């Protein structure tokens, strides 16, 4: 099925943005299905204000969790030294 192949291509082209179960292309930021019959449908989705907002929120969240993990590790190191 060419459609399946396409979904995988978009997952590869946009790592971290899309995922697929083999048939359906899924936007990880918007938690929604994205039609991938045409590439224009992908670029259109990427350009929607909803997607841009969601990707900003997601990347902010990731930064916060990364900082949290870093602080957590520093605390652990301090505990080990004591
Ligand atoms: Zn999206």
Automatic annotation (TrEMBL):
It comes from the Eukaryota. This is CGG triplet repeat-binding protein 1.
């Amino acid at each position: 099925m060419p459609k399946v192949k396409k979904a995988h291509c978009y997952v590869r082209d946009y790592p971290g943005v899309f995922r697929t179960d083999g048939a359906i292309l899924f936007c990880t930021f918007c938690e929604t299905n994205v039609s991938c019959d045409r590439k224009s449908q992908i670029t259109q989705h990427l350009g929607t204000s909803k997607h841009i907002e969601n990707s900003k929120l997601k990347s902010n969240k990731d930064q916060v969790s990364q900082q949290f993990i870093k602080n957590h590790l520093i605390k652990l190191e301090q505990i080990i030294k004591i």
